[in-house]
């Protein structure tokens, strides 16, 4: 695509290129204009600026502390996966501790998403075992996973994470309706209480709880997906590409929320194709290649090169 853009530029075509990806901006753009909260902030020559300055203009603060630091120790093992097999993965094993963010690294097609879908009951298992708090589980459907306190924030939130044509309220509470229902009626007081609590705690920016989710920004839609699972009081959260398609400021908010949840004792599995995010957010990294686990890395000692080498089976 960049080759085509450069060819068009040589022919005198003017190009307006919109992107959240810093590497793309510096690779393709001659000038960059920053907007924030609907307002014009600044226009700079890309050759005369850097990533840190752009982030400062975009979010109103500097680059320091872009990934929140861990302050609590990992607790006992909450989730254990042993020799997990499906049509897409083979003999995957790992453990997840209380209060831990476990990163799943690998290239596209490595089997990371397929692994968590099998844990969540969205794909059938062909072998292996899953243990939750030391007890064996046989999860045959997402409904069973939810009942056991497991939530999945999917990679494609628009297709699989939210009901775009329905309100924020419906999206937050539809996964926990049995707890809000008496016979066949939803208890409106309980429902409103949960929705207001999640809007406040996650700082969801919305004019009202009746706002259609499709009208919210990408970052706020991602918060709605998270709010849905927190409303079910789940203790194991799976984030598949948690910051894909959202701006830099919203990324930092999601990162802070994830670290805060871990500090509260939630256990998190995070899939990320963004190497800085994988290294900056994970307490441990499990690297996969072609449906298998290749090894485990400590992010404090690992580099992008070591992760990619393991992910490529080099």
Provide the fold topology.
Layout: H1 2-10, H2 22-28, E1 31-36, E2 39-45, H3 51-59, E3 77-85, E4 92-97, E5 101-105, H4 112-119, E6 127-132, E7 135-137, H5 142-147, E8 150-153, H6 157-161, H7 168-173, H8 177-180, E9 181-182, E10 185-186, H9 188-202, H10 218-231, E11 236-240, H11 248-263, E12 267-271, H12 275-281, E13 284-289, E14 292-297, H13 304-311
Parallel strand pairs: 5-12, 5-13, 8-11, 11-12
Antiparallel strand pairs: 1-2, 3-4, 3-6, 6-7, 9-10, 13-14
Helix pairs in contact: 9-10
The tally of domains stands at 2
Instruction: Kindly provide the name of the CATH class of the largest domain.
Output: Alpha Beta
Specify the number of helices.
Answer: 13
Gyration radius over CA: 21 Å
Name of the CATH architecture of the largest domain: 3-Layer(aba) Sandwich
Helical fraction: 25-40%
What is the 3D shape? globular
Strand residues, percent: 15-25%
| Strand order of the biggest β-sheet | 8-11-12-5-13-14
Low-confidence sequence ranges = none
Q: Main sheet, how many strands, which sense, barrel? A: 6 strands, mixed
CATH topology group of the largest domain: Rossmann fold
- The first-to-last residue Cα distance is 29 Å
Number of strands: 14
Structural class: alpha/beta
The pLDDT mean sits at 91
CATH fourth-tier homologous superfamily of the largest domain: P-loop containing nucleotide triphosphate hydrolases
Q: What's the helix-strand series? A: HHEEHEEEHEEHEHHHEEHHEHEHEEH
